[in-house]
Design a protein that fits this description.
Blueprint lengths: L2 H31 L3 H27 L18 H28 L3 H31 L1 H7 L5 H5 L4
Length: 165
């Protein structure tokens, strides 16, 4: 196994996951501010899961005696329209699925079964995230603007604060 190759792939994934955390938290804040509590909480929950991915990737990098590069893959997109947010999130998850499948294959070719399994596990998580965003988009298409209006009627304290109190 060439640990350097695996560390490079793992650090690329760290950058992508940090990008997702930053983006999803930005959207969480804005959706909460607009009164879309349930959608805001969805983004917060998924951002927390993405942070867990960063942790798992970092642990593997350190095990391989590498250094964790804590640099985001790119800037936050300043989108605040709920439907565009969901569309952007679904596209991010689709991209992650494709990238992590490629990384799993490269790790297999590199005889790094543990990193391969880590990427395969991340693919499963990203597929679930995609499904959550895709279902929200389907509901908007099926029910129109009234579906988004219903997202603002959840008046639980957690929904109103975006889960931050």
């Amino acid at each position: 196994m060439n640990a350097k190759k695996s560390i490079e792939l793992l650090n690329k994934a760290v950058a992508d996951e940090l990008q997702a955390v930053h983006q999803y938290m930005y959207w969480h804040f804005h959706l909460g501010d607009q009164g879309f509590g349930p959608l805001s909480l969805l983004f917060r929950q998924i951002a927390i899961q993405e942070m867990g991915h960063v942790e798992r990737l970092a642990e593997r990098i350190l095990f391989l005696k590498g250094d964790v590069e804590m640099v985001s893959a790119g800037p936050v997109e300043k989108i605040t329209d709920p439907q565009k947010i969901l569309d952007g999130a679904a596209k991010m998850e689709q991209a992650a699925i494709g990238i992590y499948n490629q990384f799993a294959l490269k790790c297999s070719e590199n005889a790094d079964a543990v990193s391969k399994q880590l990427f395969e596990s991340l693919v499963g998580d990203e597929e679930r995230h995609f499904d959550q965003f895709d279902k929200q988009l389907d509901n908007i298409k099926r029910f129109g603007p009234s579906y988004l209006a219903l997202q603002s009627f959840n008046k639980s304290p957690e929904a109103e604060t975006g889960g931050t109190k």
